[in-house]
């Protein structure tokens, strides 16, 4: 083979999802660039509901998905695509780069995240990376993920200071149990439960049942919440 002849890259089949036709056309143009072969746009959708249906029927390698869309948000669509078409990778392409959007996108199954002002070459690189099982997060987005991991590590270190009983009470609080219910389940007095609540708030640096509940849910200590 001549030294200057490039080996052909595998064709990456892409589904584009955005509620603005001009944005979809722009993404299609970027992927169809003559200088960057190897991409095939197999479908387009303008809302989250259609995105899920097309992901299932077309089985693309990568879905390029906006977050803000009618009928079904990008986050909801990503979660459903991850469940219904697990072999399809999800790249979020959004104007938003706030930490909560980034973290939630990863939580529901996205393997990549770019801002819409990313250079065309970076969009192509991200799609290619996801198609071979890698992840791709632009520099600002990666910073948001690092910050979130740092806070989670801090929360986990605070949990480590809890006694087994305090941890048990925290989980019951997060499930919506009253002091009386917790006392019954744990075989302790209501006064003791109140003491554990105070200790929890002091050790974790939180105030109120709502904050304790969010803390426990964020760390995965509880996944089901009972109604009062």
Descriptive overview:
- The chain is an alpha/beta fold and 228 residues long.
- 53% of the residues lie in helices and 13% in strands.
- It has a six-stranded parallel sheet with strand order 2-1-3-4-5-6, sandwiched between helices.
- Helix 3 (74-84) links the parallel strand 3 (62-65) and strand 4.
- Helix 8 (179-186) packs across helix 9.
- The longest helix is centred in the middle third of the chain and has 21 residues, at 139-159.
- The chain starts with 11 loop residues before the first strand and ends in a 10-residue tail after the last helix.
- Mean pLDDT is 84; it is low at 1-5 and 224-228.
Main sheet? 6 strands, parallel
Helical coverage, percent range: 40-55%
Instruction: Specify the CATH homologous superfamily of the largest domain.
Output: Response regulator
What fraction of the residues are assigned to beta strands by DSSP?
5-15%
Strand order of the largest sheet: 2-1-3-4-5-6
CATH architecture of the largest domain: 3-Layer(aba) Sandwich
- Total domains, how many? 2
CATH topology of the largest domain: Rossmann fold
Rg, Å, rounded? 23 Å
Key attributes of the depicted protein:
228 residues, alpha/beta, Rossmann fold, Arc Repressor Mutant, subunit A, 2 domains, 13% strand, disordered N terminus
Please specify the SSE layout and strand pairing:
Elements: E1 12-17, H1 21-31, E2 39-45, H2 48-58, E3 62-65, H3 74-84, E4 89-94, H4 99-108, E5 112-115, H5 120-131, E6 136-137, H6 139-159, H7 164-174, H8 179-186, H9 190-204, H10 209-218
Parallel strand pairs: 1-2, 1-3, 3-4, 4-5, 5-6
